[in-house]
Amino acid sequence: MMKIKNLLLIALFCVSLCGFAQRVPDYAKIEEEIINPSSQYYYPLLMQRYVANDTTLTVNDFYHLYYGYTFQESYKPLIEPLQKDSLASLFATRTTFPPDVFDKIERYSKVILSVEPFNLRDINVLAFAYQNAGLNEKAEQMMFKLEKIVEVIKSTGDGLSEKSPWWVIYRHHSNDLLSVLDIETVKNITISKNIEYLQIRNRADSRIKGYFFNISGIYNRSDDYINEAEQPKRKLEIKK
C-alpha cells in the first residue's frame, strides 16, 4: 500500500468509543431522500457543493453524500482507476518531490477522485500535494473533506463487534480509514458476505485486536454490475 505523510491531527478523530449514538445507515431511507428534488439532501445539488469544495457542508450532508453514492451510476466499487498504479509509483521510489512530480500527483489524484470522490487515501494525497505546493487553502479544503468522511464512518458504530461495525462503501476504505487513524493493519479476514475484520498490530496501551467493517453498500448496485465473475476470489475465514 502506498505510504504518504498523514496530514490529519489524529487526536481530532480519536473519539471515545463509549457513550456514542450509533447511526447505522438506512440505505432505503437515504435513497428516498437523495432522489427527492425537494429534499435538502437531493444528491445532484449535494454533489455539486462537494465538488466545489463547499466547507459549509454538514456531517449530515456528508452522511447522505457518502452512503448515497452507492446509488449513483458512477459508483463501481469493484473497479479501480488505472491512475492508482501511476500514483503509487510516484511514491514508491521517492523521498523528495520536485514541482513537476507534485503536478503529476495532483493530476492523477483528481482523475481518481472524479471516479471515486470519497477515496480517503487520495484526498489525503491531494492535500499533501497542495500543502507542499504552498496552496494552503486548497489543502485545508481537502482535509475538511477527509475529516467529515472519517467522522461519518465512525458515527456508524465503534467497530469493535459484528453488531457495531464501521460501515464503508469500498473494501479498501476499511484499510484507508485505519491508516488515516495511524493504526497498522496486519490482516484482512472475511467474516461473511457483508462483514470484514481487520486485525491490527497490537499496542501495549490497548486491548483492541482489530475492527469490524460492514461493506453491504457494495450490493446496492444492480445485478448487471454485481456478479460472481467480477468479484475477487476471497477465502472465507472465521475469526477465532
TrEMBL record:
Domain of life per record: Bacteria
Keywords: Signal
InterPro entries attached to this UniProt entry: DUF4919
Pfam families cross-referenced by the UniProt entry: DUF4919
Leader peptide range in chain numbering: 1-21
Protein's name in the database: DUF4919 domain-containing protein
Organism: Mucinivorans hirudinis
